[in-house]
Specification:
- Helix content is about 35%, strand content about 20%.
- With about 190 residues, it is an alpha/beta fold.
- The chain has one domain: 3-Layer(aba) Sandwich (Rossmann fold), CATH 3.40.50.
- Strands 3-2-1-4-5-7-6 form a seven-stranded mixed beta sheet, covered by helices on one side.
- Strand 6 and strand 7 form a beta hairpin.
- Helix 2 packs across helix 3.
- The radius of gyration is 18 Å and the shape is globular.
């Protein structure tokens, strides 16, 4: 009897927690969907992320992009997230994982973060968010900065490279040549 009294509230709490994790992100402006491993690999490869980069992941979710950028490519990575449960997950992953000295987690709205130090910006946002983000990118990005997006392109920008199957798009701040390493070449 005591077990049943404990089990029901625990089960309800678990259901509420799962529902929150899946659906709460809609309250903050975008649905949550983790980027598949192949997509994260393509995004990091397209943007030619390396040790000299400062990558900002706008809407970092649970951190697939920032942790791989820091761990596998030696980049400095900043995860920007507004949803509290995902912030907790990001902070725990950072505290317990490798490369924590190269990872920063910011609990803020992506439209309020200063992107002037970014060399790479990664996004997996809805079309409306991409429309709102474009003027910010144009205002704050340094010449030659790369933007890599999954699923939705940046309206009005021409991708330097894309993968239609994975729906990954690479942009370089318009009018600047590719890096000497050949990143971004089709």
């Amino acid at each position: 009897m005591d077990l049943a009294l404990w089990l029901l509230p625990a089960l309800l709490l678990l259901i509420v927690g799962i529902a929150y994790f899946v659906f709460a992100s809609f309250l903050f402006g975008a649905g949550y969907q983790p980027a598949p491993r192949a997509v994260v690999s393509a995004m990091l490869e397209f943007a030619d992320v390396g040790p000299n980069d400062r990558l900002f992941d706008l809407g970092a979710g649970t951190g697939a992009i920032i942790f791989r950028a820091a761990r596998e490519r030696g980049a400095s990575a900043v995860g920007v997230e507004v949803e509290p449960l995902r912030i907790l997950i990001l902070r725990l992953r950072r505290a317990l994982g490798p490369a924590r000295d190269r990872i920063e987690v910011r609990w803020t709205n992506l439209y309020q973060v200063d992107l002037r130090t970014a060399t790479v910006v990664a996004t997996f946002l809805w079309p409306e968010a991409m429309v709102r983000l474009r003027p910010k990118l144009e205002r704050e990005l340094a010449p030659g900065s790369r933007v890599v997006s999954h699923w939705h392109p940046i309206p009005g920008w021409t991708a330097e490279r894309s993968d239609p199957a994975l729906r990954v798009y690479l942009y370089r701040w318009p009018g600047h040549p590719p890096s000497p390493s050949g990143a971004g070449q089709p």
